[in-house]
Amino acid sequence: MDHQKAQAARLREWNTTMIINKTAIPDINWWIAKFRANIPAQLIQIPPQNTVTTDAAPSGWGSTLEKEQEMIAMAHGTWNGRQAKLSSNNREIKAITQGLRSFAKTLKNLRIQSLAIRSDNSTAVLDIRKWRASTSLIKEIKQVHQTIEKLGIQIQITHLPGVKNEIADALSRLSRAGDYKLKEEIFSTVHLLTCQCCMMAFPRD
């Protein structure tokens, strides 16, 4: 539906009517369901209590959960055949959804109300923040927001330079088959943290 609106605006500007085709029906039904649910929204922005950092590679995704730079948990998974063929932007956005889902139980147990999300993909950050994307990405953007709503949390998403995203990057490249290990310098950094880290691996879905 967003694509059709943008196309109509380009051709006839915004002050006009348009006829939408059947591909917009799922979007319309989604908005109708949102209005009917009438779920209250927190207008006051709560400072983030924890931070989720994600990354995606051609083979899989990785994510970390931290509180004040103290590692709480790490998770990673591999893409199935269909997911591996997605564009890099699609995979990066999907990695955020996977990261949130993998830490859902922990976030609920910690009673987290606000979460910082960091990604080294600027397209993912901008699209999620603005709630708008190209036709090829809108499905993944919706999944992120639906996951956030299910968790009942606020988010603040920011761009993290790739050179500072070492741990999530390493996790995203782990393979479920054969031998693998984190880079020694990354393992040493995690080992020095005064916490008990939980590593979770997820099968292809």
Automatic annotation (TrEMBL):
One of its GO terms (molecular function) is nucleic acid binding. InterPro entries: Hepadnavirus_pol/RT (IPR052055), RNaseH-like_sf (IPR012337), RNaseH_sf (IPR036397). Gene3D superfamilies: Ribonuclease H-like superfamily/Ribonuclease H. This is Uncharacterized protein. The lineage of its organism: Eukaryota, Metamonada, Preaxostyla, Oxymonadida, Streblomastigidae.
